[in-house]
Amino acid sequence: MQEIRVELTKNPKQKPAPGAPLPFGTIFSDHMFLMDYDKGKGWHDARIVPFGNLDMSPAAMCLHYGQSVFEGMKAYRAVDGRILLFRPDRNMARMNSSNDRLCIPQIDEKFAEKAIEKLVSVDKDWIPTSEGASLYIRPFIIGMDPHIGVHPANHLLFIVITCPVGNYYPEGLNPVKIYVEKNYVRAVRGGMGYTKTAGNYAASLKAQDEAEKQDYTQVLWLDGVERKYIEEVGTMNVFFKINGEVVTPELQGSILPGVTRMSVIEILKKWGVPVVERRLSIQELADAAKDGKLEEAFGSGTAAVISPIGHLKWGDDIMVINDGKIGELSQKLYDTLTGIQWGKIPDPFGWTVEVK
Ligand code: COI
């Protein structure tokens, strides 16, 4: 394994005061991890250096052709003072799956995990201690060659930055309002929907902007071909409790395989709650709502954790779910996931990894 060179900052920044608001993704810690890739040489020069601007050509390929992938993870300050990561192996495996689709060379997953642990350890005093707050970790890879021309880059940069964060949605655990998108699509099978790449999020901006203008938090995407089947929300996977059974859209290429999604399914199975991954049409959901069978709806994601959905708008059809309140199962899942992540309850799955 490569050595990781560490250069500590001589100008540490002021950390947010305990309990100060931490608007998501706006405050950055003191250091970042960098590693270069060059064709013929592989990944090299792994280093932790002071957080700062990158030196790149305006012709850098990632800026023009979107050859970039990213991940989202968190470090938690456990109640007993330990620092925990949640299933970092799953994030690194997904990063390599995204890399494959975008012609980005594979990373050594174990080494990348170690690099992230080291970065978190260097900036451990940046992990917030207030209730519900954590250190968000953003690993990403970008194509750097200065070249106007569409082909995979030969020189890439793997970067990890971190930021102390509170809730992703200002609503916190209060149910969000979601709008079912009818005009735009996010991804199609055969495209890049299952990867975490910048382009998928660029594709979502217009719809998101229109939804916000109508006072909705995010949009729920339907499949890109028939515009009938539920896929995911902008920053989270979705689950619906219908007549006692939890249903989530199956992974078929255009949906992000969320680490929180996977964990929710495993927790539900352990509890013996019926859970199925299948195609679910928006019409079926609207019918279930009319028949009083749509009991709960929630999104799942690293940033969003478990986010109840209280109101769903599909054209003129408005579904108010569980009277717009958080459901019992959503609350229990939130408590269990966050309980494991902050070490408040035992972790029977072995999902947490301690950073020393
Ligand atoms: C995450 O949940 O970590 C994400 O990456 C979603 C979003 C912040 C883009």
Provide a brief overview of the structure:
This protein is α+β, with helices and mostly antiparallel strands. The chain is built from 8 helices and 18 strands.
Write structural notes for this entry.
By secondary structure, the chain is an alpha+beta fold. The protein has two domains: 5-165, D-amino Acid Aminotransferase, Chain A, domain 1, CATH 3.30.470; 176-341, Alpha-Beta Barrel (D-amino Acid Aminotransferase, Chain A, domain 2), CATH 3.20.10.10. It is built from eight helices and 18 strands. It has helices at 61-65, 88-101, 109-122, 198-202, 205-213, 259-271, 282-290, 328-341; strands spanning 5-6, 31-38, 42-50, 68-70, 73-77, 83-86, 134-143, 155-165, 176-180, 218-222, 230-233, 237-242, 245-248, 275-277, 294-301, 305-314, 317-320, 352-355. The strands form two sheets. Strands 1, 2, 3, 4, 5, 6, 7, 8 and 18 form a nine-stranded mixed β-sheet that branches. Strands 9, 10, 11, 12, 13, 14, 15, 16 and 17 form a nine-stranded mixed β-sheet that branches. α2 (88-101) packs across α3 (109-122). The longest helix has 14 residues, at 88-101. The mean pLDDT is 96. The chain binds 2-OXO-4-methylpentanoic acid. 2-OXO-4-methylpentanoic acid (COI) binds at residues 72, 235, 301-303.
